[in-house]
């Protein structure tokens, strides 16, 4: 599906979308908490839907109401019996993670808490992403694993047994998130002792682990001691927290990852206010505000929201190693900054929905922007303006949004092929920028409505 963005001036205020990082973790925590939970401000992106589908497959019952969902996972403690019955009936339990990298990495250890075979599948680019981590780590925890040469589908059989292990955190912190959630509720072997730890080398995206630990605490789960992000120690001698709590409540945060595109759009083409983004959030992509300040963006933050207006922008240096999802909006921002912007962390981009380093170089190159890659560093030669062009999302939601934002000040129209890739994380994106005055035409939005001027 194609969407065309014409040069536009933005004005108004907008509520940031719900964070899929927060929403998916809330679904996982609601599942393993094995009780009734109410989640307010739930997201409805494709990744959020995948997470809800997974916990439903594992025994949770979800009721949806206006601006909230109720998750009843009291049957999770009996999931072994449920799976056993399905197996006896000749039915295989399959979990489909859609295109969500977080879901596959987080829910696989949780599914491994069961004692029957479970097939874990995915779609799109997820089927090509490496899953060697599970081949290497889960057998150490008593889980049988069969993969497709390190890729999907995975067939696992638990139950997972917490043990003292050391893992590599250089590829993604999401693998650690899944293990932390699994360790929080798994039954331990007394022979392992009362304290069991997960040691981590070269952990990336530490703020996302902060988010995981915060969600675990809010759902009353056992939370490990964080020893400088190098070791996470569970003390099983202490009573399980909040065992008497009848119902958990959790409000999904506003999404700094999606909100970053709105903030950059305001900085290059508007006079807007973005509401719903908490400065107290542990989300890694909150660092977009640091990049905007470094670029001399017209920005002010107060109780009403984050205010952005068009201003003269300058090149900047930024380390995105712990927040690699910021690369696409940062490239859009840097395109309108005078001078050469340097962004560190390119090696984190290879195993996203696309190889984002190369994709950003090629797609923005079509708009006349020079992007150079030097190992872990990206140089963006900005300030010369962009031209409208035919670009392709590469089925990557963040590439589609980055091109759309950059198109707001380009000379001429920009048409984005496979534009509905945004449904993965931010299905309302085109509607939202259109409500601020963006000239958007062509295509069908996620609700099936015609997107036109």
Shape type: globular
Number of strands: 25
Structural class determined from secondary elements: alpha/beta
Main sheet overview: 5 strands, mixed
For the residues shown, what is the average pLDDT? 91
Q: Between the first and last Cα atoms, what is the distance in angstroms?
A: 17 Å
Alpha plus pi helix count? 13
Ranges where pLDDT stays below 50 over 5 or more residues in a row are 80-85, 445-451
Radius of gyration, rounded? 22 Å
Q: Into which percentage range does the β-strand content fall?
A: 25-35%
Helix content: 25-40%
Pfam families: EPSP_synthase (PF00275)
EC number: 2.5.1.19
Catalytic activity: 3-phosphoshikimate + phosphoenolpyruvate = 5-O-(1-carboxyvinyl)-3-phosphoshikimate + phosphate
Binding site for 3-phosphoshikimate: 20-21, 25, 172-174, 205, 325, 352
């Amino acid at each position: 599906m194609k969407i065309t963005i014409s040069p536009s001036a933005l004005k108004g205020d907008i509520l940031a979308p719900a964070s899929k990082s927060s929403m998916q973790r809330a679904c996982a925590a609601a599942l393993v908490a094995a009780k009734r939970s109410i989640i307010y401000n739930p997201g409805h992106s494709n990744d959020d839907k995948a997470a809800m589908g997974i916990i439903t497959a594992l025994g949770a019952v979800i009721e949806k109401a206006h601006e909230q969902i109720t998750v009843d996972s009291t049957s999770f403690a009996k999931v072994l019996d449920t799976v056993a019955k399905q197996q006896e009936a000749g039915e295989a339990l399959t979990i489909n993670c859609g295109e969500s990298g977080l879901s596959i990495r987080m829910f696989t250890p949780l599914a491994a808490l069961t004692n029957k075979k479970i097939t874990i599948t995915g779609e799109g680019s997820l089927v090509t992403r490496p899953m060697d981590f599970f081949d290497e780590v889960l057998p150490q925890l008593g889980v049988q694993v069969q993969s497709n040469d390190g890729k999907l589908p995975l067939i696992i059989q638990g139950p997972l047994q917490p043990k003292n292990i050391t893992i590599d955190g250089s590829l993604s912190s999401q693998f650690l998130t899944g293990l932390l959630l699994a360790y929080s509720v798994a039954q331990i072997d007394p022979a392992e002792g009362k304290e069991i730890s997960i040691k981590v080398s070269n952990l990336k995206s530490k703020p996302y682990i902060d988010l995981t630990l915060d969600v675990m605490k809010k759902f009353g789960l056992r939370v490990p001691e964080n020893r400088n992000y190098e070791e996470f120690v569970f003390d099983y001698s202490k009573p399980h927290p909040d065992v008497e709590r009848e119902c958990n409540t959790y409000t999904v945060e506003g999404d700094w990852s999606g909100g970053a595109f709105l903030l950059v759009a305001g900085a290059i083409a508007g006079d807007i206010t973005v509401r719903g983004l908490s400065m107290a959030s542990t989300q890694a992509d909150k660092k977009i505000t640091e990049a905007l300040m470094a670029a001399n963006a017209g920005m002010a933050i107060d109780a009403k929201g984050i205010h952005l207006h068009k201003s003269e922008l300058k090149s900047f240096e930024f380390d995105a190693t712990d927040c690699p999802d910021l690369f696409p909006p940062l490239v859009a921002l840097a395109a309108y900054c005078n001078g050469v912007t340097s962004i560190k962390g390119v090696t984190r981009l290879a195993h996203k929905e696309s190889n984002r380093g190369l994709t950003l170089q090629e797609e923005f190159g079509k708009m006349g922007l020079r992007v150079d890659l030097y190992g872990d560093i990206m140089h963006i030669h900005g300030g010369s303006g962009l031209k409208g062009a035919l670009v392709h999302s590469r089925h990557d939601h963040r590439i589609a949004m980055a091109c759309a934002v950059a198109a707001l000040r380009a000379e001429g129209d920009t048409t984005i092929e496979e534009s509905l890739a945004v449904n993965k994380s931010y299905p309302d994106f085109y509607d939202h920028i259109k409500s601020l005055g963006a000239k958007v035409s062509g295509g069908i939005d996620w609700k099936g409505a015609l997107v036109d001027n």
